[in-house]
Amino acid sequence: MSWGTELWDQFDNLEKHTQWGIEYVDKYTKFVKERSEIEISYAKQIRNLSKKYQPKKNSKEEEESKYTFCRAFLTSLNELNDYAGQHEVIAENLTSQIITDLTRYLQELKAERKSHFHDGRKAQQQLESSWKQLESCKKKFERDCKEADRAQQHFERMDADINVTKADVEKARQQAQVRHQMAADSKNDYHSYLQKYNQEQHEHYYTVIPNIFQKLQDMEEKRIERLGVCMKTFAEVDRQVLPIVGKCLDGMTSAAEGIEPKTDSNQVVESYKSGFEPPGDVEFEDYGQAMKRTVSENSLSNSRESKEKPAGKSKSKLWPFIKNKNKPPPAPPASSPPLPSAVPNDPQSPKQPKEPLSHRLNDFMASKPKMHCLRSLRRGGSVPEDFSHLPPEQRRKKLQGKIDELKKDIQKEMDQRDALTKMKDVYVKNPQMGDPASVDPRLAEIAMNIEKLQSEEQKFEVSSASDVSVGEAFRLGYPSPDGSYTEEQSAETQVKAVANRTSCAPESDDEFDELETIGTCKALYTFEGQNEGTISVTEGELLYVIEEDKGDGWTRVRRNEEEEGYVPTSYIEVLLETNAKGAMTYI
């Protein structure tokens, strides 16, 4: 059906309909634009979500990467990030393939519609102008006819009147003839314009308007077809990214299927295995025998004979604790000084052959660097470079990892050295390409870097070898002081406690006894001893010294028979007796 033949009289309605069609195109364009904005916003939120849960760049990331479920989650996050990228692709394709195209087409459509309706209005105006001319000719013909009739009637009256002269009658006759001629001319003009108008009207309604309406119909059909293509493209844009989205989802599925609970549970063993053996059976302690006092051979004071104490008189003994040798106490009377970490009281260890183990541990302690306890690290201390705060098994793994890292750095420097050496040889053979001496500073710098890295590698290898020695010592059957390793104890604490129990303990079952005083001291400042192993003192208080400062900034003092502990050496004034017996000294 054609608009030109069927809708020849619906010019105004077609104008409204085509305007509504253009507005609908604009409406669909806005819809696609909002969809594109939603895709961009969604992709941004997905990327932010993926970024938010990405592991931080710290030591914990290295620990998390050991577990399959953590790696699976990281893979899922990466795949989710790629998934967000596909939504950005959707937004880009919607913009380039639909929004931009429809926006340009909408302008063309408006211009085309305007042109067609302009031609239609022009044709209507021409037809109306012809109609007006026809009406004018018709009215003139009608007027001339009436004038001719009046002139004819006047002539007839004059001719019938005997009183009118012949000249007047002739004049009336001539006037009537003129009027009849004018009416005839008007009739001819009217007839001519009528034929012309009918021809224009026929052409208008059967040729001009149908052609214009046909163009409008073609324009409307193209508009509808273009909308259909855009709607199809709208779906195809999503379909194009489905394969990649499917790969992202497959990656997430594969990552989830790659989770191995057994492997992760075994990794816990690898991560936290200390290398210590479980403690042996606790032997029976016979308190019926008299307690014997052990005198340390490491005291800086002159040893003197022990004084006998009545049997049965004993008090709670204070286990020695590891003090950070690398960090002296703050100068008084500043804020509270760092408190030494304490080793909890542990049960009596089974008696071991003293001589062989003492020699082993003495050799080990002479070569092994001192460790930092984890409690001191928690208080803000830096992590030791040789990982001495870790238990043997974990320290060995860390050291090996550091060695492997240094080897990679050394190999990288060597590769650079080889490349520069080849470049220098080329410069020597072809001086026009460059100055060979310009490479020497960089070669010297690389040589220094290699030497430094090799030195560090050797240092860590030595530490690793000594760490294997301590592992062997514990595998001989000597447990840690409290039978287990926790974060509140360092490996050094356990090793030194073993050494103390074997090399410093007497052969009797009484492992500890009362320590002799080796002098007196006066508190210069008030000290609040809040940690286990310390004792609180007030300014001006007099105390007994039972163990002097071993170079770590702490002195062991006693207030009475039941109270003793460590205080910062800088907080007291010490007066040692000349012939005092040495107190038991702990490593």
TrEMBL record:
<dbReference type="GO" id="GO:0005886">
    <property type="term" value="C:plasma membrane"/>
</dbReference>
<keyword id="KW-0472">Membrane</keyword>
<feature type="compositionally biased region" description="Basic residues">
    <location>
        <begin position="369"/>
        <end position="378"/>
    </location>
</feature>
<protein>
    <submittedName>
        <fullName>Formin binding protein 1b</fullName>
    </submittedName>
</protein>
<dbReference type="InterPro" id="IPR027267">
    <property type="entry name" value="AH/BAR_dom_sf"/>
</dbReference>
<keyword id="KW-0206">Cytoskeleton</keyword>
<dbReference type="InterPro" id="IPR001060">
    <property type="entry name" value="FCH_dom"/>
</dbReference>
<dbReference type="InterPro" id="IPR001452">
    <property type="entry name" value="SH3_domain"/>
</dbReference>
<keyword id="KW-0254">Endocytosis</keyword>
<feature type="domain" description="F-BAR">
    <location>
        <begin position="1"/>
        <end position="264"/>
    </location>
</feature>
<dbReference type="Pfam" id="PF25610">
    <property type="entry name" value="HR1_TOCA"/>
</dbReference>
<feature type="domain" description="REM-1">
    <location>
        <begin position="389"/>
        <end position="466"/>
    </location>
</feature>
<feature type="domain" description="SH3">
    <location>
        <begin position="516"/>
        <end position="577"/>
    </location>
</feature>
<comment type="similarity">
    <text>Belongs to the FNBP1 family.</text>
</comment>
<feature type="compositionally biased region" description="Basic and acidic residues">
    <location>
        <begin position="352"/>
        <end position="362"/>
    </location>
</feature>
<keyword id="KW-0963">Cytoplasm</keyword>
<dbReference type="GO" id="GO:0006897">
    <property type="term" value="P:endocytosis"/>
</dbReference>
<dbReference type="InterPro" id="IPR036028">
    <property type="entry name" value="SH3-like_dom_sf"/>
</dbReference>
<feature type="compositionally biased region" description="Pro residues">
    <location>
        <begin position="327"/>
        <end position="341"/>
    </location>
</feature>
<dbReference type="GO" id="GO:0005856">
    <property type="term" value="C:cytoskeleton"/>
</dbReference>
<dbReference type="InterPro" id="IPR031160">
    <property type="entry name" value="F_BAR_dom"/>
</dbReference>
<dbReference type="InterPro" id="IPR011072">
    <property type="entry name" value="HR1_rho-bd"/>
</dbReference>
<dbReference type="Pfam" id="PF00018">
    <property type="entry name" value="SH3_1"/>
</dbReference>
<dbReference type="InterPro" id="IPR057870">
    <property type="entry name" value="HR1_TOCA"/>
</dbReference>
<keyword id="KW-0175">Coiled coil</keyword>
<keyword id="KW-0446">Lipid-binding</keyword>
<dbReference type="GO" id="GO:0005938">
    <property type="term" value="C:cell cortex"/>
</dbReference>
<dbReference type="GO" id="GO:0007165">
    <property type="term" value="P:signal transduction"/>
</dbReference>
<dbReference type="GO" id="GO:0008289">
    <property type="term" value="F:lipid binding"/>
</dbReference>
<dbReference type="Pfam" id="PF00611">
    <property type="entry name" value="FCH"/>
</dbReference>
<keyword id="KW-0728">SH3 domain</keyword>
<feature type="region of interest" description="Disordered">
    <location>
        <begin position="257"/>
        <end position="401"/>
    </location>
</feature>
<keyword id="KW-1003">Cell membrane</keyword>
